[in-house]
Design goal:
Number of strands: 25
Oligomer: single chain
Helix content: 25-40%
Strand order of the largest sheet: 3-7-8-14-11-10-9-22-25-21-20
Bound molecules: zinc ion
Distance between the termini: 31 Å
Structural class: alpha+beta
Strand content: 25-35%
């Protein structure tokens, strides 16, 4: 085995990168800032995709595929959109050996090209709403990159919808925020705070942006999904109109919402420990690893017989794998699967064969505490129950960590000190200048203005201006 992992408390950033490289989730690509998602990471992402896709379809959305290239002029049609994205565009100027008449942008997001198509597809109120999602990758030229969190190309889904009224668009925006919240909590076991973004943090071209915000293991915040009410901004820029029931032409109201491979980074940082990944059973590519243990051929044949019976028992309903490697010791295998975050390990040795039992070892509780001896009879139910328990406890643990590291400062001085190393929740005026000052003084930004909050009136914790809403501030990824 290579050197020990850096510990999280010594160097969280290098722990994060080393866990990804050693567990073979991803690797660096030859082009600076790009990443290769390896099979193990892709299997994890596919489970994220499936869990989300089920929810999208259940809420009436369909998938479609739009092109990678967008005419440069499209981006220029929406003023704040182009301002927001132009610094990070990758532009294609040549094709087939010739200079192109108009440069093409490699999509940084697809509002413009999808808006263009919607303007052709939508004619009357009968065509609405249009509810489409796309799975794909986008490119934003980032200079400072980090695997899964910020790479030049990343994978995601982007939903794009068009509606007849503002109310319907707003309902959709919040519905998808709820879908993301439900996914994060019940699949990724990550507690999140759904809320509205401040003016300076909102999406380029949106009327209002919403996000789910999560606390990572180093107490920094990570925006794990966003949902935008685009108002009529893109409808006006791209001429997306419909004839209403009075036969009058109206502009549509559109939304967009996205969740990306950043979520994989969130899963790593919210749950991982000094031994490596700790994957939530719902999303783990391998939920159970079976390690047979023997010393000689006679033991081997007995142990393997039980191993086969056990794996047949787990059948199709559990994602399991048997580690039959001969060239490494059981101890090596334990460490290896702990690094890769497999939630549950089943050990089967000669003694277990004799006692008609197996050993269950939990990834989230290492050592004696997480070990139990269970009968081979009824094992499937035991395993299912154990995986459910692990899933629930991962969420509880992450929630407790966030609660223990959330403070409610009452003065600017107190705010400055707690926001360095925790979430600071406080009354805030919501003004751009105030936020800019906070960022300059503390490097923290407003993460969101939580949807759920009590009525309150008072003074902004930082500038003293009147404030009616609480906001969450933190240093963020
Ligand atoms: Zn203020």
């Amino acid at each position: 085995m290579a050197d020990k992992l850096p510990t999280r408390s010594d160097d969280f950033s290098s722990w994060y990168t080393q866990v990804i490289l050693r567990s073979e989730l991803a690797d660096y690509a030859p082009v600076r800032g790009c990443m290769v998602v390896r099979p193990y990471g892709t299997a994890l992402w596919e489970n994220v995709q499936q869990a989300l896709d089920r929810r999208f379809k259940a809420t009436g959305h369909q998938n479609a595929l739009f092109p990678l290239f967008i005419p440069m002029s499209f981006l220029e049609k929406e003023k704040s959109h182009v301002e927001g994205f132009s610094p990070e565009l990758a532009v294609v100027t040549h094709g087939g050996g010739e200079k192109l008449e108009e440069p093409l942008v490699v999509r940084p997001t697809s509002e413009t090209v999808i808006g263009h198509m919607y303007s052709q597809w939508i004619r009357s109120w009968r065509d609405l709403p249009v509810l489409i999602n796309q799975w794909g990758s986008v490119v934003r030229w980032e200079m400072r990159t980090k695997l899964f969190l910020r790479t030049a190309e990343f994978w995601w889904q982007e939903g794009h919808t068009a509606h007849a009224t503002y109310e319907e668009a707003q309902e959709e925006t919040l519905k998808m925020l709820d879908v993301y919240t439900d996914f994060a909590v019940s699949e990724a076991a990550i507690p999140v705070i759904p809320g509205r973004k401040s003016e300076s943090e909102k999406f380029a071209g949106a009327d209002a942006s919403y996000s789910i915000e999560a606390m990572m293991g180093d107490k920094k915040a990570l925006q794990a999904g966003t949902s935008h009410n685009l108002g009529q901004n893109f409808a006006r820029a791209f001429d997306i109109k419909y004839l209403d029931t009075n036969n009058e032409l109206q502009y549509c109201w559109t939304t967009s919402w996205g969740l990306s491979t950043r979520m994989v980074g969130a899963i790593i940082m919210a749950h991982g420990d000094d031994q490596g990944l700790k994957l939530p059973p719902q999303l783990a590519p391998i939920q159970v690893v079976i390690v047979p243990i023997w010393k000689n051929d006679e033991e081997k044949s007995k142990v393997m017989e039980v191993t086969e019976r056990v794996s047949a028992m787990l059948g199709q309903s559990i994602r399991w794998k048997v580690d039959t490697r001969d060239e490494v010791t059981p101890g090596f295998k334990f460490n290896d699967w702990e690094l890769r975050g497999v939630p549950l390990r089943i050990e089967i040795g000669p003694k277990d064969v004799y006692k008609h039992q197996v050993v269950l070892a939990r990834r989230d509780k290492l050592g004696r505490e997480g070990k139990s001896f269970v009968s081979q009879d009824g094992l499937l139910d035991q395993v299912r129950e154990m995986l459910d328990t692990i899933q629930a406890e991962l969420h509880q643990q992450a929630l407790k960590f966030r609660q223990d590291n959330t403070h409610y400062p009452k003065t600017a001085d107190e705010f400055k000190s707690v926001v360095q190393d925790s979430f600071a929740v406080a009354l805030w005026c919501g003004q751009r200048e105030c936020e800019a000052k906070i960022k300059e003084d503390t490097k923290a930004t407003s993460r969101c203005i939580p949807m759920e909050q009590e009525e309150s009136h008072g003074e902004c914790v930082y500038c003293g201006e009147p404030a009616t809403r609480q906001a969450v501030f933190a240093r963020a990824y």
